[in-house]
Structures are given as structure tokens and as C-alpha cells.
Amino acid sequence: MNILLWHVHGSWTTAFVQGPHTYLVPVLPDRGPDGRGRARTFPWPASVREATPDELRDAEVDLVVLQRPHEIELAERWLGGRRPGRDVPAVYLEHNAPDGDIPNTRHPFADRDDLTLVHVTHFNRLFWDNGGTRTEVVEHGVVDPGHRYTGRLARAAVVVNEPVRRGRHTGTDLLPALAEAAPLDVFGMRTEGLAAHLGLPEERCRSADLPQSELHAAMAERRLYLHPVRWTSLGLSLLEAMHLGMPVVALATTEAVEAVPPGAGVVSTRPRVLAEAARRYLAEPDAAAEDGARARQAALGRYGLKRFLNDWERVMTEVRS
To answer: Global pTM?
Structure first.
């Protein structure tokens, strides 16, 4: 099967393209948001092929995976007038939790009868108003990085993109109190200046924009994974931390309460409880390793790559039938 999809979410796409198909990824000269082409920081197989708009005009396409509202018009234009959902089977993949007038946020593809709306978490499907559009949930899958946890550094790893700009969404305001319990190493995109923004000494809150090739090794050296996010879809970094064998300390928000089972870490809506858990893991490295091992087994069982790809094969077969 030839599947057209844009390079929007590198981590998610890395798992999706491990399937048995050919994946056509649009590329433009400037490699901007509508034409990034193949990933440069994730290992993608040779089955992922770049395609220019001119090449897509006559390309054989069996399925279109849409991920942003404007892509349906873009696809029709670049496919030479073939309309996703009408002339080519299509799904709309929703990565994000709703924002705005929650819980009344209406999905931009609500009440459609020409495609299937696929959410990455059950929480997202629950909170979006999907109207009458057929909906599915295909939970995340992760390419297993292996059990790499050492926990040798008595610090907490946090992975979040743009923590200064996103503020309360990512729980950035909670970090000063949590940093009193455990020194933080914050990884992600645009993390520079975080300590100064929070008024923290660098030793209590270090930040670094690491390349993907170095991220997992850096995370696995930290004693625990801290997930202070208030409102977002389920972060793949949390699932990656569990795969690495890290114990998780997380706010009990959005899908995190489903992803982290008892014995794999501590999940609570009370920051004080999270701080106490972080202190305990720093003081008891053996307990941290034991909870991390359980976290890894839970992640492999629920968010393993085989289950993820099998679920997508079922959805794609149903959409094309």
C-alpha cells in the first residue's frame, strides 16, 4: 500500500513507518512545515520516500493520513484533483487534546461521512466533540529503545518542548517547588533560559536542547522521569521513559492516569505528593529501579510497536473496504 502523510510529528511517524507499506512524505525546497521530507534526526526505513508535489500528481496513493485541517485541500491540489475521502480513502489523525471551550470543543472534522477520525488516546476522543464522524482510537506505539536505565544521577529528567512559552499547559509553574525536592534536567525544544525564567539556580534546574540521538541515553542516567504536564495529549517522552526502565512521577491529568499503572511510579493531582515521591526515589535507588522495571513491562505490554502496527492495519483495512 502507498500511504501519503506529512512529516508532522517525528516520534509518532517513526513508529508508524515501521509497518509493511511505502510511505510518501511530501518535500518542498525550503523543507518547511508542509514539506519537511524525511526526518533527519529519527531513523526511518528506506520505505519512506520523499515526493514533490509534481511527483504526487501522478503517484499511486492508496490512503491519505491527514494530520492538520488544511492538509485535505493541499492533498487534493497536489494529487491532481483527487479528493481525500472521496477519490482516495482517508483518515484524519488527531494528535492533540482539545483546546479552547472545553469540554465543548468541536473537532474541525466533526460530522464527516467521508473519512475516519483516529485519536491517539481515549481521553482525546472523550473530550473532543466529534459529532457524527466515525471515530477510532489507536493508542501510541513506541520503537523500543531498550532497558537502558542506570539512574546513576540523583536528578529528575523532564522532557518538554517550549516550557517558557507554553507555561501552565506544560506545568512549568510547578517546577520551582518540584526542584526543591529533586534537581531537574529539562530536555526538549527551546528550553534555553528556563532557570532564569523561574528564578532558579542552574544547579537546581538545568536545561538542554539535545538531539534525538542523545536524548534516551541522557534520560536513562537520571533517577526518575518527572511529567508535570497539565494539559496536552499523552507525551511520547513519558512512554519512552517507561520503555527505558525509568520510574515515573506524573500529574494525574489527561491520559497519564491510564498509561502509568500502580507500581510503575506515582501519579497524583497534588504536587506535594509528586515532590515526596521524587525525594523517595532519590533516597532509595533500588526502589526506583524496581518501579522502573515494572514501568517498562507495562509500556511494552500496552504501547509496544507490534500492537500499534496491528491496530493501524485493522483501521486502514476497514477504511479501504
So the answer is: 0.94
